[in-house]
Design goal:
This protein has 173 residues and is of the alpha+beta class. It is built from 4 helices and 9 strands. It has helices spanning 2-17, 82-91, 95-99, 135-150, and strands at 45-52, 59-65, 67-72, 75-79, 102-103, 113-118, 121-126, 157-161, 164-169. Helix 4 links the parallel strand 7 (121-126) and strand 8 (157-161). Helix 2 runs antiparallel to helix 4 (135-150). The protein is elongated and about 85 Å long.
């Protein structure tokens, strides 16, 4: 009688594990991940890239309001050039951005930045060592420079520092 109880207790488990009508399928290719345009590439803001504290290497775009310059007769013009964007990047995230979980892997402070566009892409020159930067810090520089200079994240960027050159590389975001 005892064997019948064990079999009676195991029978529902065996029935559940033998299948419930769901068939196995192969992997379905869905293509590349979706991309979202965060902000228009105009004079309303500057796009900077910071590191999300939820992931060691995930970059998140941040739109900063443009600084304005007086150009005469009370007119103002946005200042959103690549050197300005990179200078803002080196100042690090604002308090609000830090409270939102963003951080920078770049050294903070004032850094002299020069940016030029040539046949090979964007060339950034900074007055600091660059070869020892983490991959996330490199991507912060590359993505911000590519976006600020050409509005095209696929543009090749080379960064020249006091200790050598990194790149050419492309923004991974």
């Amino acid at each position: 009688m005892r064997g019948g109880r064990v079999l009676g207790a195991l029978l529902p488990v065996l029935l559940l594990t033998t299948g419930c009508g769901i068939r196995a399928t192969d992997v379905v290719e869905a293509g590349e991940p979706a991309t979202v345009e965060v902000a228009p590439a105009d004079q309303l803001g500057t796009l900077l890239y910071f590191v999300s504290s939820s992931s060691a290497s995930r970059l998140m775009p941040v739109v900063r309001k443009s600084r304005t310059l007086q150009v005469g007769d009370g007119e103002e013009a946005g200042s959103t050039g690549a050197p300005d964007a990179l200078s803002l990047l080196f100042l690090g995230p604002t308090r609000t951005e830090r409270d939102s979980g963003l951080r920078s892997e770049l050294p903070t402070g004032r850094t002299r930045v020069a940016v030029e566009l040539n046949a090979d892409g964007v060339r950034v020159t900074v007055d600091m060592p660059v070869t020892g930067l983490s991959q996330a810090a490199r991507q912060q520089l590359i993505c911000t420079a590519a976006r600020a200079r050409t509005a095209d994240r696929s543009e090749a960027v080379t960064v020249k520092g006091t200790d050598g050159v990194i790149g050419p590389a492309h923004c991974s975001v």
